[in-house]
């Protein structure tokens, strides 16, 4: 099948979206061309506007189109609690979960010496500068429960403890609604070791 | 969760793509912003270029960025065979399947009086004009095997038979590799009624 160049280029460009394979890209291109050209033009403008206008918050380093993001600018948030995450997606996830009212700091990924990602690269100096400016009582390490995430959490915990800041790690275990038989062994072992008294 | 306006607009615009729900749109927006801004700008340009440049072939009425599409312009195709379909997606599907070397004509959907789609609306006059110009020996009706698709096929068959054109319908039945127990009853009944001798 030889698509005409503009259609071929559109299908190829749509494949740049995560999770979009050749069949899906073809279906999307056809839908836009046949049914919804205004949707396509609107998407083109939204893409350009976001790529031009969205940068990073100078305080917490999450994605933001303003110098200070709306979470950092919100006077109702609790300055004494700082949650450290490893991507803006994690900030979105925690905000959507609700219940956390402190501040955030977003690392650029995890420590990974093999990939050349040391403390400097992932933003540790900026984290320390951010802690200097504020009266943080507790830092919650919410890096992912992976080998690199754990290593990053421990590295930061060791840096902060001498400064008299309480450091905690988010709990890991069986997800709510999860069935034990379908949970991986590592998670299950972690959940057992981390058991808490009830009653 | 309150996204900043540009991110919110990007997520909303991505939801205009078929099959993209809120979570997927969020993941796509994040991926583009965090990892691949060049991919996003490239997609924006490809969308604009395709919406501006792609129209319809004046002969077969499939999507084309030239007055005559490359299938109609190809001198190696067989002018005596004309396959009638109901969307450019169907042309793509038949071309990708391979094995058909005739010409195409694309209707604008199916006859559906309830929706105000009569012969005029779906392009029957243009089909007749196209048949006048050419020496077509056989018309293959490849509208979908739905109530409207069947009605459209029969309508066209009745129009063309008096003109001495051979009219055929694509075969319907159990898909290759399909397992009988998972095939819907209508298809199965059709496949049994349309049985062909072997050996
Ligand atoms: Zn911020
Ligand atoms: Zn054509």
Automatic annotation (TrEMBL), chains A, B:
CDD domains, sorted: TOPRIM_recR (cd01025)
Record-given protein name: Recombination protein RecR
Zinc finger residue extent: C4-type: 57-72
Species for this entry: Pseudomonas jilinensis
Keywords for the protein's UniProt record, in alphabetical order: DNA damage, DNA recombination, DNA repair, Metal-binding, Zinc, Zinc-finger
Pfam families, A to Z: RecR_C, RecR_HhH, RecR_ZnF, Toprim_4
Record family assignment: Belongs to the RecR family.
Record carries keyword Cell inner membrane: no
InterPro entries: DNA_Rcmb_RecR, Rcmb_RecR, Rcmb_RecR_Znf, TOPRIM_dom, TOPRIM_RecR
Gene3D superfamilies reported in the protein's UniProt record: 3.40.1360.10, 6.10.250.240, RecR Domain 1
Upper taxonomic lineage: Bacteria, Pseudomonadati, Pseudomonadota, Gammaproteobacteria, Pseudomonadales
TM segment ranges: none
Residues annotated as domain Toprim: 80-175
Highest taxon listed in the record's lineage: Bacteria
Single GO MF annotation: DNA binding
Any Gene Ontology biological process: DNA recombination
Its biological purpose: May play a role in DNA repair. It seems to be involved in an RecBC-independent recombinational process of DNA repair. It may act with RecF and RecO.
NCBIfam families the UniProt entry points to: recR
